[in-house]
Design goal:
By secondary structure, the chain is of the alpha/beta class. The protein has 5 helices and 7 strands, in the order H-E-H-E-H-E-E-H-E-E-E-H. A 7-stranded mixed sheet has the order 3-2-1-4-5-7-6.
Length: 150
């Protein structure tokens, strides 16, 4: 709920990196975020996500792809959600900085990006979510590195 609240009022392509059972992708679609896409490597979770989409009447309206997030091109994504382990966040931060447009928003659940300052946050404990607007993240990275992008 907190992740989706941080995306309220936004538009554009929405991607969940490591989409698991697909619940965030389905909720994003319900809230009008389109296209809504999930990237997941686990075939059982992909099957479950597609089943849930079919059951909700969204078959063919949302996409769940067997895609390695490190190989995915995210340059057309305006909303990115991640519920990934802390160890993945530093290299993922570099990929997102390199690929996402300035207008993009990244929302992390459970674990924040350690080197980024959130634009906003909601919730506490396991329910906490952090939103990062890429324009602000880039501005902070450039000023923190003497004007050089990190």
């Amino acid at each position: 709920a907190n992740v989706m609240a941080l995306l309220r009022g936004r538009s554009g392509k929405t991607v969940d990196l490591g989409s698991g059972d697909g619940r965030l992708v389905l909720e994003a679609y319900k809230q009008g975020l389109r296209p809504a896409v999930g990237y997941e490597l686990n075939p059982w979770l992909l099957w479950l996500a597609n089943y849930r989409a079919w059951k909700a009447g969204y078959h063919g309206k949302v996409s769940f792809l067997k895609q390695d997030l490190w190989k995915a091109n995210l340059s057309d994504c305006y909303n990115v959600t991640v519920f990934l382990a802390p160890g993945v966040k530093p290299p993922l931060a570099a990929k997102l900085l390199a690929e996402l447009p300035d207008e993009a928003r990244v929302v992390a659940g459970r674990f924040p990006f350690p080197s980024w300052t959130p634009t906003s946050t909601l919730g506490q404990g396991l329910e906490q979510a952090w939103a990062y607007d890429m324009k602000e993240v880039r501005r902070a990275a450039q000023s923190g590195a003497g004007g050089r992008p990190v």
